[in-house]
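User: Can you help me understand a structure? I only have the sequence.
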Amino acid sequence: MNDYSFTVGIPFYIKSNPHQFKEAIDSVLNQTLLPKKIHLIQDGPINNSIKRVLDQYKSHKSNLFILLKLKKCGLPRALNESIKSCNTKFYARMDADDICFPDRFEKQISYFKNHLNTEILGTWAYEFENELTINRMFLNRTPLNKIDIKNIIHYRNPLIHSSVMFKVDSIVKVGMYNEYMYTDQDLELWNRCINDNIVISNIQEPLIYLRVIDRLKRRSKWSAIKRQIIIRYSHNTSSLKLNFLKLASIVIRIMPFFIRKWAYKNLRK
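Assistant: Let's start by predicting it. Here is the structure, written out as tokens:
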């Protein structure tokens, strides 16, 4: 009998928004297909507002939740600790400020059942800034086939990280997350996976709502830009077009916020 059990990992820390954190957890609990376990991954000390959110789930399906309390160690290591401690075949990423469509996990597991070679699977996403308003959303489309994924990684992320579900063994095989990459750790991991011929795909429909405003601000930090340069240029190409797009993606990150915001929405269409 095939094993399609999965764990969902939701990392959070002291600056996580309690209301958004609860929305994220509830969107997992309201799935048409529930995970075997939900890892609530606490990275360092937290405030009372977040503690009150956690308290709400202590008695609610207590066998479903595992609270991983870690000393402040950074997101990559926190994720690695969760991945190493899970006992399921699949692992689903989820951020503490995003919202899953109710059938996200059911559709991802169905895809894995019908595409047995697939090892990492993302989805499209509806992006929004603060409130979930239908007429102010942007549809982020990610590529389906291997060639497009290999090409697009030169200048943008081929996967929306909080939409991803993967086979645990495949990620362990490539060394999991680089614990020194405090930003862009997902992009760096996908880069290694592509180089190791891991089979990656994306479901061509949105299955998650993604908050983007804070992500855009974090990407402008010089330390994040340096990591971006290292990752982009570790994946070489002879294509003039791809090299131009690679350089352009880095230049945009040092632009003023309003230009980056415009480019993020308009240059990916």
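Now, to help you interpret it: The domain at 6-212 is CATH 3.90.550.10 (Spore Coat Polysaccharide Biosynthesis Protein SpsA; Chain A). Strands lie at 6-12, 37-43, 65-70, 90-93, 99-100, 120-128, 138-140, 165-167, 200-211. Let me know which part you'd like to focus on.
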